[in-house]
Design goal:
The protein is mainly beta. The protein has a domain of about 150 residues: Thrombin, subunit H (Beta Barrel), CATH 2.40.10.480. It is about 5% helix and about 45% strand. Strands 2-3-25-24-23-22 form a six-stranded mixed beta sheet, with no helix packed on it. It has a five-stranded antiparallel beta sheet with strand order 1-4-28-27-26, with no helix packed on it. A hairpin with a 4-residue loop joins β6 and β7.
Length: about 375
């Protein structure tokens, strides 16, 4: 987050979520248009503070928001009522400092930040002081590096996505995402399952079509973890002991576009120069007749009720060949325990959903120069 003057631009707007269609079958569930954020902080005008690369947004009990900005390695506390901001952590290697800030969550009264390069968790007290630090042990060789945090502990355990990679023919990194479990004290305990994230298997733009999210029982007690890669309309489930459970079959997701249609979009992105450098060179070398288009590109779970939110694959917004890359706009499905779609939410074209808490949509909007603008929507979930 870079201050360009002593002032910031902040807008606190009335939330608006409108139902634009309600169809009779589960497969044709209501389509709800999300618009008019309740919080919009950042700015597309001179003299404003801007975020560089938001990785997590966490609501705090007092109405403020904690933001992890991985671009400048800053942990920023934002007060939407006054427009004030406060830096709690910044780039460095000392206490309360980060070499790489990639995760943020609330655990009781403390705020926990994750630095994968330092393999360190830093806990901050409610007044912004460093409360404790925990170092993670290295996982066994071949497991990969834990750099995608699940978030708050589930059943007293910490979960991460560990990425490992090889370089197969064709020039793309074959990223294997392994779900790993750690003790609260930072000791590696187990690898639970893996998915492969490979462009030539998932077709254009599908790199990054995986996610890690917590699940909840009907009583709201966190009791499961999820893992998926989009290759099938399925989300894998694991118990806290590491047992793989029956998967959630996403029966109402639409069929993905054809390989030809997806490549047509990707070719246009290449022609427009939106993708360039080594990614463009590698994509241009890819054979057009192989690979499958994914069914979904990302998912998160509501931190309060555990409901699963899944983004159906959209060639226009899911083209970036980056593991865990941003996925703006598109249509997200709120899923019930049986895998059926309850509602569909049409997101603003430049809004990237990072998390959901109590129906509140947390993320950022891409500005005119690709700066990140903290954005929160108060979603109205039908009874």
């Amino acid at each position: 987050m870079r201050p360009t003057s002593p002032f910031i631009v902040i807008a606190t707007l009335g939330a608006l979520v409108s139902v634009v269609g309600s169809l009779p079958t589960a497969a044709q569930s209501p389509l709800i248009t999300v618009s008019s954020p309740s919080v919009y902080l950042g700015a597309e005008s001179a003299g404003a503070m801007t975020f560089t690369r938001i990785r997590a947004v966490v609501p705090l009990p007092d109405g403020r928001f904690a933001v992890a900005d991985a671009g400048d390695e800053l942990l920023v506390i934002v007060d939407p009522s006054s427009g004030s901001t406060e830096d709690w952590g910044w780039k460095g290697s000392g206490p309360g400092e980060f070499r790489s800030l990639q995760g943020l969550w609330r655990d009781g009264t403390v705020l926990v930040a994750f630095d994968p390069r330092a393999m360190r968790l830093t806990s901050f007290s409610p007044d912004g002081q460093v409360d404790a630090t925990t170092r993670l042990t290295n996982p066994p060789p071949g497991t990969g590096h834990p750099d995608m945090p699940l978030g708050a502990p589930v059943g007293g355990k910490l979960y991460f996505g560990a990425l490992s990679g090889t370089q197969p023919e064709g020039g793309f990194s074959e990223d294997v995402l392994t779900l790993v479990r750690y003790s609260a004290s930072g000791e590696f305990e187990a690898s639970l399952g893996s998915v492969v994230n490979l462009l030539r298997h998932y077709a254009p733009g599908a790199v990054g079509a995986h996610a890690l999210s917590p699940a909840a029982s009907i009583a709201g007690a966190l009791s499961e973890v999820y893992l998926g890669d989009g290759s099938e309309p399925v989300v894998r489930r694991f118990s806290l002991t590491g047992t793989e459970l029956d998967p959630i079959v996403l029966s109402d997701l639409p069929e993905p576009p054809s390989r030809a249609a997806a490549w047509e979009v990707l070719e246009r992105k290449l022609d427009e120069g939106i993708l360039s450098g080594r990614w463009a060179a590698a994509l241009e070398a890819q054979p057009r007749g192989v690979g499958e288009v994914p069914h979904y590109s990302a998912f998160v779970a509501d931190a309060v009720d555990g409901s699963l939110w899944v983004k159906e694959f959209d060639a226009e917004s899911d083209y970036r060949p980056l593991p865990g890359g941003r996925k703006p706009g598109g249509v997200w499905h709120r899923i019930d325990a049986a895998g059926r779609t309850l509602e569909r939410y049409a997101m603003p074209d430049r809004f990237v959903l990072l998390g959901v808490e109590g129906g509140q949509l947390l993320g950022y909007t891409l500005g005119s120069f690709d700066e990140h603008i903290l954005t929160v929507f108060d979603a109205v979930i039908p009874d």
